[in-house]
Amino acid sequence: MPAPHLAMTAARTAIIMRLSASKATWQGLGLALIGILFFAFAQKYDAFEAVIRFADTHEAYELDEILLAIVIIGILSIVYGILRIWDLRTERRHRQMAERQVDWMALHDQLTGLKNRHSLDRTLAAYDRKASAKRSFSLLVIDLDGFKRINDLNGHHAGDLVLQVVAERLREQVPDTNIFRLGGDEFLVIVDTPSMAAPVARALLQSLNQPVPYQGVSLDIGASIGLATWPDNGGKAVDCLRDADAAMYAAKAAGRGVLRAFDKEMAERLRARGLAERNLRHAIAYDGIKPFYQPIIDLHSGKVCGFEALARWYLEDGTAILPLEFIPLAEESGLIMELTDRLLRQACEEAGHWPKDITLSFNISPVQLQDKLLGLRILRILMETGFDPRRLEIEITETALINDIQTAATILSELRTAGISVALDDFGTGYSSLAQLSNFSFDKIKIDRSFVASFKDQERQEKIVKAIVGLGIGLDVPTTAEGIETSDQLASLAGMGCTYGQGYLFGRALPADEVRRLLEQESETSLRNTIAVSAQA
Ligand code: C2E
Ligand code: MG
Ligand code: MG
What we know:
This protein has an eight-stranded mixed beta barrel with strand order 9-10-12-13-14-15-16-17, surrounded by five helices. Helix 11 runs parallel beside helix 12 and helix 12 runs parallel beside helix 14 (405-417). Helices cover 58% and strands 17% of the residues. It is of the alpha/beta class.
């Protein structure tokens, strides 16, 4: 159960217990009052003597035996009541213990015993409530270096051990109550005296940089630390966490084992990024980003056989922002799913009007191949737009296949089973292109334009392109050359046996209405050619 849920369950149990305790008190008080009233009434009218007299005069009713039985039942009921109260108290003690345990679990990390993120949120919110007390503190966000590698190479046991050792090392320097595990390999330390924050951080770096012994080997580990102080930069205590996070990312970018303090420059970058993210969110929501389409030519027939959708973001003043600027931002801010869904839907709707033999190629970001639902999302869009899966080709780069091979493989096989083709984009630019070709099945290889751009001038590049085309022929996988700009390049590529071509020589990415015009022109030309050929015959 997630921590917030556990906390809510514990709180709810506590409320119910408190309510039932107060109900029992009221019932007890009510009964005592009724008893006192009865007693006073009986005293006043000598009720007991009257009953005795009545029993004496009516011996035949055996009232004395009945009275004796009532007295015995009364005494036994009192004993029974006392025993039940005893049981209740024991049960309540157990419940309170369980409640305390649930409370602890809700606020702590099971593996290291440190407080968790939920607990930190509470602590920071409490600081904010006491803002008038002008307390100040520093936050150290600590991210381990090389943790993923340890997990991948030595297994999760080793990873767990490293996290426990790290927790112990943190406890050696800082009181337990000020240490939190934020999740994964990220920890946070609150330093109550800001002037001590940097020395504490440096001591932590030194201790965390020591290798961790594990089954006779030593695991190489390190840490990067981001520091921010509250209320130095104004804002709420929770904003300080965001600042310390930003400082930690700056530390990570600077290399292993680095400490970085949040500064004005980072604040400015953070502000600009926040603004860019808001603009991007707005552009996605209002369809400000549209797919344009670059023609792909069959080098054998010289005809357009498909289009690659390339995202274009046109601002109100007419300036265009290219994908390399906003796709990384969309990936980092988690907006890429929404952007892809909208672009793919639009592209499928528009491509649905093209002739049936014209295909649509669509780029998928590497991060998306870690989303297990990607296949389903794509298929749902195809179903809703009625676009034939056999006309869709998904382009992925090899980085997509490195991060989480298993998930990527599952998604690719789902797509291919549904009839969608998969192309390996930018082939040759990564460091394991050949490994990817042997591990996965692709329907197309796209030779990166960096090879095509220079191969006419450099003999080596030409040989590489020739080899890639040969590889495609050998594997029976068609190749597309990207970035063809001159007819010389075209002639050489066609001569090598490259299947398809794409580049400014044939055309740049066009908006949907221009694509329609181009396709109409093309069908008219081929109609004219067919008529001319049959007239000659
Ligand atoms: P890519 O998939 O390799 O796309 C080809 C890029 O080369 C495009 O750049 C295209 O405009 C450019 N190009 C095509 N022919 C030529 C040429 O003859 N000369 C030169 N110099 N360039 C040419 P663009 O549109 O800027 O896209 C860059 C990259 O952004 C794409 O590389 C693709 O990886 C990514 N991208 C584009 N649209 C999307 C999208 O909708 N989703 C995702 N996830 N990525 C996209
Ligand atoms: Mg592409
Ligand atoms: Mg490419």
